[in-house]
Design goal:
Helix content is about 55%, strand content about 10%. With about 425 residues, it is of the alpha+beta class. The strands form two sheets. A five-stranded mixed beta sheet has the order 1-2-7-4-3, sandwiched between helices. A two-stranded antiparallel sheet has the order 5-6. The longest helix is centred in the last third of the chain and has 32 residues, at about 265-295.
Length: about 425
């Protein structure tokens, strides 16, 4: 056997040993050949399971290896702070995040470094207090209409479906002018297809086969083509318009950097529109649905919340200025997002070697940072599975380390 043949025969074994090796320095369950970390992520009780792994092995848990790279679950404020803040330049978006490029393209969710900072400056005006204030009354009107309809119907309803419909309505109204009604149904239908593909395939073991011409892949490709066709037409119309109609899309088209000249291309605006839409649609609907479900299960807090709102607002619609006078309202939402964080997992890839809680992190290692696991850690939260909004009182919040609570991510991942 010549040298080339020997290398060819030896390589698969070497890769197998590398992928399944479980050094003593890595705290975690025994590695499983071939499927690696997927056995911990593709299961019905994934959140409970990850919490049990953290309780057994600590804040840095080795889950196995994927494509030769060790994968770790990261929890707890110290390890999270190190990765997302103290040494964040050593970590880039993880592989799971990169798989979303087919939908988000070069949207700010997937950008790094200077590219992210430049894009953030261009997009930030859409989230200024003045912009939010201008749509509060529209949002309050829609919520009021929904509450009236549900009250008149007087029947049980699926809070998840209702909140998805409400946030879809509000997101579209905020992002586009009213002249897209003719294409709205087509656009929303395509978005639903892409949203489902994102949520169902993030850790799917079939990701490597997504290029195959299956009915699912063809449906996803058709949805992307629909979104592109409609969005590029809307972007062109905004570029030709003489005035700013107040929509987010109008703002993105007219945004320029500090030099007063540089803006975004049509493709970049398309990608940013998708990022803002999916981020606002998914996270907001989840937060609202869980908050309402928790109030339904905790009638004493629901009554206290009603009394607070009635005492401050009377029969008036809320304004952004009223929020400071509704502390229980704020604490209810915070506790809801602690129990069920809208963005429960952030992925990172190590650029160079590092050490986390005494565990060596190799270059290329995949890190899964879970707000859900940190939010349910009894080391930092008393009775973590209980619904108790009072834990977010000013006094308790002031004494809590920052990274014990991050329901929407931090920095480049902040929704």
């Amino acid at each position: 056997m010549n040298e080339q043949s020997l290398v060819a025969c030896a390589a698969p074994g070497a890769l197998y040993r590398r992928a399944t090796m479980h050094p003593q320095s890595y705290p975690g369950p025994r590695a499983t050949p071939f499927i690696g970390p997927l056995r911990h992520l593709v299961r019905q009780d994934v959140l409970t399971h990850l919490c049990s792994l953290r309780a057994q092995y600590g804040d840095v848990v080795h889950l196995g290896a994927a494509s030769g790279s060790p994968t770790f679950l990261i929890a707890g404020p110290d390890a999270t702070k190190h990765v997302l803040q103290d040494n964040n330049r050593n970590y880039r978006k993880g592989r799971a995040a990169q798989r979303m490029k087919s939908v988000f393209g070069s949207g700010s969710l997937l950008l790094e470094g200077d590219q992210w900072r430049i894009r953030r400056r261009l997009v930030q005006p859409a989230f200024h207090r003045e912009k939010i204030s201008s749509v509060v009354d529209t949002f309050a009107e829609a919520a009021e209409g929904l509450a009236k309809r549900l009250r008149n119907e007087g029947e049980d309803f699926d809070v998840r479906e209702e909140m998805l419909a409400l946030t879809m309505q509000l997101t579209v109204r905020n992002m586009f002018s009213s002249n897209i009604q003719g294409e709205l149904g087509e656009l929303i239908g395509a978005w639903h297809v892409l949203y489902e593909s994102l949520t169902s395939s993030r850790f799917s073991p079939l990701q490597a086969l997504r290029w195959l011409p299956t009915p699912t892949s063809r449906r996803q490709r058709a949805a992307r083509e629909t979104v592109d066709r409609v969005l590029f037409r809307l972007i062109e119309a905004q570029r030709l318009a003489d005035t700013d109609d107040g929509s987010v899309l109008s703002m993105l088209v007219r945004a320029v950097d500090d030099d007063g000249v540089s803006g975004m291309s049509d493709a970049e605006i398309r990608d940013e529109t998708m990022t803002i839409f999916v981020g606002g649609y998914e996270t907001s609907s989840n937060a609202l649905a869980f908050s309402l479900a928790l109030l339904a299960d905790n009638p004493s807090f629901a009554e206290r919340h009603f009394e607070e709102v009635r005492g401050v607002l009377g029969a008036n619609r809320p304004t952004i200025a009223d929020l400071a006078s509704l502390p229980l309202n704020r604490m209810l939402l915070q506790e809801s997002m602690r129990l069920y964080p809208p963005s429960w997992l952030i992925t990172r890839e190590a650029i160079a070697e590092d050490v986390l809680n005494g565990v060596q992190i190799l270059a290329g290692a995949q890190l899964l940072l879970s707000s859900y696991v940190t939010h349910h850690d009894p080391s930092h939260w008393n009775a973590p599975d209980d619904f108790n909004p009072m834990r977010f009182s000013d006094a308790e919040s002031a004494s809590r380390p920052k990274f014990t609570y991050f329901p929407f991510g931090v920095g480049r991942d902040f929704a």
